[in-house]
Amino acid sequence: MNDRILVPSIENRLTGLIEVCRRAKQVVDDKNADKLKHTVTISREFGCEAFPAAEKLKNILERESDEPWAIVDKSLVDEVARHHDLAADILHNLGKRPRWLDDMLSTLSPKWKNERDHFQLLAQQIVAMAARGNMIIVGMGGAIVTQSMKNCHHFRIFAPMEFKISSIAGRVGVSKAEAVELIEKRQKAREKFIRDFLDKDINNCHYYHVLFNNQHLSAEDIAQLIGNHIYSRMK
Question: Are 139 and 77 a contacting pair, CB within 8 Å?
Fold first, then answer.
C-alpha cells in the first residue's frame, strides 16, 4: 500500500516546514523574543484519522496565531534527509538538541547498532523541530521523545476496531479483510518500534494530555479541541 494515500502531500508539508524555519531566521522584537512557541504531538492507532485532524488543526492554529505551522511525520523527515543541504540548513536554524536527549539515547539497546544510529538522527530532528515550536508532529514516538519539553502538548487518537476497518477500507479502497490484516500489521510494527528503541509502551495513557475516541469525535472535532487547548496557552 502506498502510504501517501493516507497522508497529506509531502511537497505541501515540506513547503510549510521551510516557511516555519525561514521565520526562525527573522529578527524579532524584544516583546516577542521570549514568547513560548508551542508544539503538538499526535499519536494514533493505525486506522485513525490523525492526518485529517492534523491538517485541520494546522489551519486553525495558523488562523489563531497568524503564523505558519508545519505538519511533520517520518515521511517528511525522510524527504528532508534526502536533500543534505536542506537538512543541514533546517537543523542549523532550529538549534541544538538538549543534553537530556543524549542521555536518553545512550540507554538504547546495543543490539540495534545500525538502526540506533538512524534513530538517533531521527530523535535529534524531532527534538529540534519540537523546540522551535509551531510544529504538529505525527507519530515517530514524538510524545515520548519530547515528553520533558515544556512547550509540547501530547494527544492520542484511538478507536474501536470496526471504526478503523471502515476508515481504512474507505480511504485506501481495500476489502474489510485486507483492512484488518493491514491494521494489525502496522499497529504491531509501530508498537514494536517504540518498544525496541525507547523501551516504552506508546499505548500508555500517562504520556498524553488528552485521549480522543475517533468513533465519537470526527477529525474536525479533534482538531478544534486541540486548537482550543493550544490557543488558550498562546494568549
Answer: no
What is the pTM assigned to this prediction? 0.78
* CA pair distance 70, 45, nearest whole angstrom: 22
H/E element, 182? helix 176-198
DSSP 5-56: GTS--HHHHHHHHHHHHHHHHS---HHHHTPPPPEEEEEE-TTS-HHHHHHH
Name the grid cell of 34. 521570549
Report the C-alpha dihedral over residues 130, 51, 60, 33, rounded to 10 degrees. 10
Q: What is the pLDDT of residues 60-75, one digit of tens each?
A: 999 998 999 989 887 7
Per-residue model confidence as pLDDT tens digits over 132-174: 899 999 998 899 989 989 999 999 999 999 999 999 998 888 8
